[in-house]
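Annex B, item 7. Sequence and structure tokens for protein A, then protein B.
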Amino acid sequence: MKKKSIFLIAATATLYFNNAYAQETPQDSAKISSIDQIVITGNSNPKKKIESSTAISTFSSKEIQKQNPISAAALLQRVPGFAVETSGGEVGNNLFARGIPSAGAYEFVQVQEDGLPVFEDGALQFANADNFFRVDNSVNRMEALRGGSGSIFATNSPGGLINFITREGTNDFRGTAKLETSTYGLMRTDVNVGGALVQDKLFFNVGGFYRTDDGIRKTGFKANNGGQIRMNLKYVFDKGYVKVYYKKLDDRNTFFLPIPLVQNGNKLKGFQNFDPNYGTYSYRAISQLNIPQAGGGFFNRNLEDGIHPKVDVLGAEFKYDLGNNFSVLNKTRYTNINMNYTGIFPAGGPQTREEFAKSNGIAGNNYQYSLVSNGAVVNPEYVQKLGFWAIDKQMNNFVNDLQFNYKFDQGNVTAGFYKSNWKSHQYWNWSNILTTATDRPELLNLVDTSLSPSDTGYSKTYNGVTNMTFLQRDTQTQGSLNDLYVNLDYNITDALSVNGGLRYSHDYYKGNFANTTSSNLNNSGLTTDGTHGFNTTTADDNMSVLGNKYTYWNYNVDKVSFTLAANYKINRENAVYARFSNGFRSPNEEAYYNYFSNPNPDKPLKSVTTNQLEVGYKYYSRTFDVAVIPFYSTLKNLSFTDIFSDGKSENTFANTENYGVELEGYARLFNNILEVTFNGTIQSPKYKNLEAGSVLEGNVVRRMPKFYFNISPAVNITKSWRAYVSMNYYGKRFQDEKNVQTLPSFTEFGAGMSYQLGKIRFAVDGTNIFNTIGITEGDPRAGSPNGDGIIMARPIMGAAARASITLDF
């Protein structure tokens, strides 16, 4: 792979020097001018970007095409204020907005498609929002709002809104077809077509993709396999329009989790027999699980299914001019999701064979390891206990957003009612397995040689399983949201405008969970090997059994969010603004479970409240785009709900304070021959105003870099040739609240080039071309970290390259 990376760099450099003196004006600029760019996210009406008193970044379909992000998270890395962890693979990644810490997922931002949520809560357990949407050629543009008015136009979104806006047909029939391959076995096809069925009246658009690949990390099976299709039909009449649409997603993705590394201060290297760039514990040889259950029957699972959501979305949008400057807009959507989620979650780090045997009650050298595959006796230096976690989720969400708008000479006012009902029913079945601590792990059995095969406790495993179904959950959570909101835009003068918004949330949450007991298979009549009963193994000693009694709970939220802002347009190219906003996030799903499963909770269950103040300067011209946005935020009642490897949940509360500045820029130089895109964030997120004597007071918020940025220069060598290099820097962080485990800073480079031949575009894109070992998180499920030595962490993917051909017609 290093040779391939070097080749990619050399090819890019050769291309540049061979054409360095070509001075033709390029036709393929990476970014259109923002002077007249219109944004809709976080605004009651479409508004010029320079006139919007929000911190918002926009990406057109052409910009997305040129970046060719390997995942939605990779695209969001280009947004200042968003610290994004991309190491999970195509899905299951984490986004932290403006230094707001969480257990992960998209907990404080809402991800939308066409102005409605992908799912109402984007941070349900094992249901990150990016599990349920994909970026393909049917996306027309993306708008990413930080803070600001997010809490007025959506729920649980004080950190911001991310809105993917899909293509619609026009009078001209147009289409795009793309074929893509890679160094990791990728075969992907994207197609999008749109046009008019009746000129000026009835329009359609259909698009989607199908993809299969082996994964950058070597799993031994197809790591990603599936695709999506979406279509819409829009009818335009004299006073408005009506649109209906449908989306089907059926995609299977491997989720990558921490692997062992060796850390010495800020230096990282691979653990023995484990490639840090391409290795993973999620491997074919340990992919099958089939175990009897204490309640009867068998439970089986296939790791190759990975994260496998089946998503059906049906929606409609209606707008009508009521006359006298009044209009009505209604958006409605129903989403149904069935997801099987299977992943390998390390249960701590590697242990020597002696340490693991001793921890399982085997004295001295009276242990024997053997391969489950063929029974051969082996002596691995290190072994690894891994969680084989299986989760099934059935989810649905009906949402309707009705709003009325009145326009007057100096502005407009919008009032709306937002209704959302959602349900999540989930079942967990978790076991632990024992493997070699290598990147092509093999299942191990362990026995106590001081005992005979018929003795109680002779074996510590059952076909490589150390803890059979040690955790089961059967839980249901429902939300019913009833929100009223109003937003006012008022132009005091042609240059000065003010904005104010208010949202009242009257929300209900309820649920239940099955109580559990423990049992074993000693009296089941089953055998471990056809001869010996389960009393000879400890693997079944603490099996979880679902009971027929349920605990029921409910929780109500009555909260008001508000914002106030002013925007002063100095001239056509310059503007300044200021905004204060107050918002909240309802308790997340694990917080409800923790609270209501504890008969004597020591902390009241509360929503997380936020206050944010931001000021900004924007400059947009034909040559430069610049945005500089200082911000300050505070959070109260922040709860951490990481689930540890033993199935217990963290239950830590904190308050935080953060101040920083977001930077975003774009330059077109030398007659558009050189383009430079830049975004960066400088911040200081800390735990503040905690209980007296708290050891966390003043510590840096966990997993939050103080400084991160992305810069991407591109050279339009001729009208047709284009080459770029990207640099992504992610600053030092701490894995834990106590600031014990350092996550070193890292820099990831990418490079690529494209050639436009008429309507055909050829492109090569390389990621992490120098094979950097960069860790985005440690192991949040391992409890207290211990600093240097062997650590568990989740690194970014190794070097890879993709090649594509795109036809526009």
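Protein B:
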Amino acid sequence: MSNQPGAARFLDFTYFKNDFRGGFVSFLVAVPLCLGIALASGAPLFAGIIAGIVGGLVVGALSKSALSISGPEAGLILVVVSALDSLGSFGALQLALCVAGLMQIVLGIARAGIISNFIPSAVIKGMLAAIGIILIMKQLPHLLGYDADAAETLALFPKTGSTITALLQTAVHHIQPTGLAIAVLALAVLVLWEQAVIKQHRILSKVPGALIVVVLGVVVNQLVLAFNPALALRGTHLVQLPVVSSAADFQNLFTLPDFSQLTNVKVYLAALSIALVASLEALLAIEATDALDPLKRKTPTNWELKAQGAGNLVSGLIGGLPLTSVIVRSSVSLNAGARTKLAALLHGTFLLISVLLFPKLLNMVPWAALAAILLVTGYKLARISVFKEQLQGGFTEFVPFIVTIVAILATDLLIGIGIGAAVGMFFILRESYRNAHFFEHHTVDGRDKIRISLGEHVSFLNKASILTVLKDIPENATLEIDGTNSAFIDRDILSAIEHFRDTARQRNIQVVFLRKGEDYTQSLAEQRRVSEPEAEFEAYYKLFNNDRNWVSQKLMNSRHPGAEPATDDAPKFLFIGCCDSRVPASEIIGTAPGEVFVHRNVANLVVSTDLNLMSVLEYAVEVLGVEHIVVCGHYGCGGVRVAMESPENSLLTSWLGNVREVMQRYRTELEALETDEERYRRLVELNVIEQVYNLYQTNAVLQARQHSRPLHIHGWVYDSHAGRIQDLQIDTRRDFAEYDTALRYQLRPDGLARLGGTLHQPPAIYSIFANNTGGPIIAIPPLRGDAPLGTP
């Protein structure tokens, strides 16, 4: 393997079989869509194919997205139609596209990609679900054999052309029996290919179901053509790729821009429109594709704008349509198995080769077979579990999710996302207003004890509600205002609290205002007019106050008629976390004492030589019988930060060598990120994933699996600022299958002995136990070609 990071990023053949399937299937789907979009745009048909080739090869080579595939997109149809009407010629449109590409490159340099960070995740998930629903609805006419609308616009009620209702009504009166039969057969094959009997088959599991569907569609139609030509599919029912019979024909397919229009102001207005729409759609598609990525990679958005700009510049120069990242093609590729950018490069390569070598063969593929692939893709984007997950997330997530879906279905992609984002912003402001503070009132020793805990972000919007609470504080009370968890407190709020403190003395109200960070001691000294040592003691004494409040709360709950009795059941969870005091396990997951078994160490590491952890793990699995083990890291982890930055030799840095190994293993991915903070946060996630791998290989977990005991392993990251837990969705079976190690050895008295078969684990040095081996197994990285056996 090359030691050059750039080479490693560009020529990563780790998932070649998966990427080949993804690139090939997305290519099959892209051909008719490229032609349909060109037709709907009023442009030359081959301009759509050119844009698809450029999107695969140029953008695919320059982009740092692992899964995104670019090409002409239905959302740009109206922009192209409007530009052609304004400019009057396709050559002038090409020039506008070149200018638009340069504008996108400038937007990337200006770091405009940050706009995607302001779209709520519920809106992104709503966008994916809406696209899935549209794909399902738009394939119904094709399943019946009606293939007049090949552009597949992402709107059920487009401003131009037929609505889905009209298409369905027309399709019902024009049912094509052969197309319907091919569609039903294709759906049956795709459903069968999702079953365990196929997935576990040694040979069939390696053949993509989509390829079987396409081949069956061609074979069935050719058989019908041979035995009953009247029922065979022809014309618009089949893919219609331009046939190139000579080098001159191929050369004539490409055209240059009309540079005489450089002084035409309308060119630059059209370019601005293309650049803005294409950039926004690309950022949204990238965000959505990253959300689907099973490996949870993050695309640098500013770099993506530059890659999209370069693609549009090249497409404009050689006669192509505007292009952008296309979520439909990307999701089709992902569902077919794609895992790296190699799928996009193969996608573009297949498009180019198909034009040159076998256009007639592709023109035999029925639309009905491709429609079945798109319908299954749509179902996976809009499956019922997605709606259930959002519903479980609460009202504030479910409403923006549903509104985004309805708005996209009723209007179009960009307008729908804008409406969904506006609703999401409303709920953000609403929650900010409602959760700016939490009020607690107890009576301790006959004196009112009131505590106001301020939220993370306290703005001027919260001033009225806080003033209302302060106005109702009774005389002779003790008021504690806790702002230690607040990242921001508006100056208006601070002034209101200071004013209340000045007037509270007249009502014998004792006020303690606690601030976070370096202002903590200073604020105490200012409030109580005491010296700094006394202020330090006040901070210490606050611990005892907290304890008394906790006891009071427990006593109050125990007297409450609805209080639940304490349980003596063994805990079902083992929590392996960082020893950072800011990540209290029982608080972040809201559990009572006795519900979670906890182990902590610096940077939440799982190391086979750590006898403390191994003892805890064995006791939790064998004695307590826990059913879930959670490895929980957190953003802001000091251990990970030290591992990244500290070269010093000490016990701590020796312990953190495990994190540095993770950093070295994923060096290519980390270097692709734009800022140190992004690299740091990603390393926190990668470290959790690596510890889950290590945990999965421990003897206690292996024994549990061998005895079929219910044991689930999870990887979490806690965001202390947002107060939320993120499940990294680590699928150990799937992820281990993607990290097969071809070499493994057994340690015997006479040395290392090579074993056959495949060991499912990351390529690193581990000592584990496996079935029918008679001893520990050592898996090591691939050897050098000239190295003796057993030498890494």
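Comment on protein B: The chain has a mean pLDDT of 78.
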